[in-house]
Here is the input.
Amino acid sequence: MAAAAGLVPLETSIVSPLGRHSASLIFLHGSGSPLEGPFFKSIHQQCLAQGDSGPGFRKWIKQVLNKDLAFHHIKVIYPTAPPRPYTPLKGGISNVWFDRIRIALDCPEHLESINVTCQVLTDLINNEVKSGIKKNRIILGGFSMGGCMAMHLAYRFHQDVAGVFALSSFLNKFSAVYQAVQKNNGVLPELFQCHGTVDELVLYSWGEETNSMLKHLGVSTKFHTLPKYYHEIRKPELEKLQSWILTKLPEEVEENNE
Here is the structure.
């Protein structure tokens, strides 16, 4: 996908690799930051109204892990979605990756806003490639809306990335992603999914159906069921994700030229 002229670059929060940079991870936030714990239900609407940001999402991940999500050779990039009117907030401005009528499996996709964001995120990918990182050394992923955005970005426009992950995410029933995957004859990036069984915002069955559809269309998938998880992220989930990331982006051995 070619980058579009005139689009404003995304603000990012970056966790630099501890050693030589040889791979990159782009981690997309959701439409809000539901917090872990018993107060989830009462505070979710407040979190949704505030939207999210790259720095805010990085802070949440850091709180869960008690440290940054960091690697010796992988740069972790947390972009902030551009502010836009968001229909579920009655047209209020929020940092969301795309618009939608409501959060529902049978809701039509708002492809116009999705496609614009894909162009902006393509700039981010291209910047990594220009810095010397090969496309097959980049992973795209996200939480909730961010996971949906990552699947659109990878399976429709960047099918040569190393992998895709989607945490507590889903695709709409007649998603353009399914159409793009169906037309592909090559090898597609593997999908890593985690989903809580008691998620009341993005139902477990929606994530399960997304996985089943993509698997049926030829995508290699890993689906982790998280018993008693709501719409949240916990440490065990992030540890599973870290392990998967390292299988897709192993550290490269430097050649000895002596």
